[in-house]
Amino acid sequence: MKLKIVAISIATLASFAIGASAALAKDDHTAKHGGIFVETKALDFEIVAKPDLIQVYVNDHGKAVKLDGGKAKVTLLNGTEKSDVELAPSGDKFEAKGSFKVAKGTKGIAVVTLAGKPAATARFEVK
Prior knowledge:
The chain has one helix spanning 2-26; strands at 36-39, 44-50, 53-60, 63-64, 71-78, 81-90, 93-97, 107-113, 120-125. By secondary structure, the chain is α+β, with helices and mostly antiparallel strands. The longest helix has 25 residues, at 2-26.
C-alpha cells in the first residue's frame, strides 16, 4: 500500500514538473539582440541602446506583433540631462539611428503604441 502511494506521488510530481517546464519555455525572457529585456503587463520589450543606434523589439509575451501604424519613443536620462528619441518601424522592431548619449548608468523610458492599442511603457537602465 505504501509503495503504491509513493509511486502515485512520484508520478504526480513528475507531471507537474513537465507542465511547469513547458510553461516556462513558452515565454522566453532572454534578450536575443544584445539588449535589455523588460516584461510589462501589456507587452515584452527588448531595448538595444547604443551611442549610434536605438532599437526596441516588441512582442506580445512570445507572440509576434504588427508594428505597422505603431509608434515608439525612448526618453534617455543621464543625470539631469533628458533627451527624447522618436523611433520608426523597421521590420520586426522600432529603430532610430543617430548620435545618442548612452553609457553605463543611462536610464530610459520606452513608450510603444501599437495601432488600435493603448500605449505600453517600459523602464530600463544600461548596464
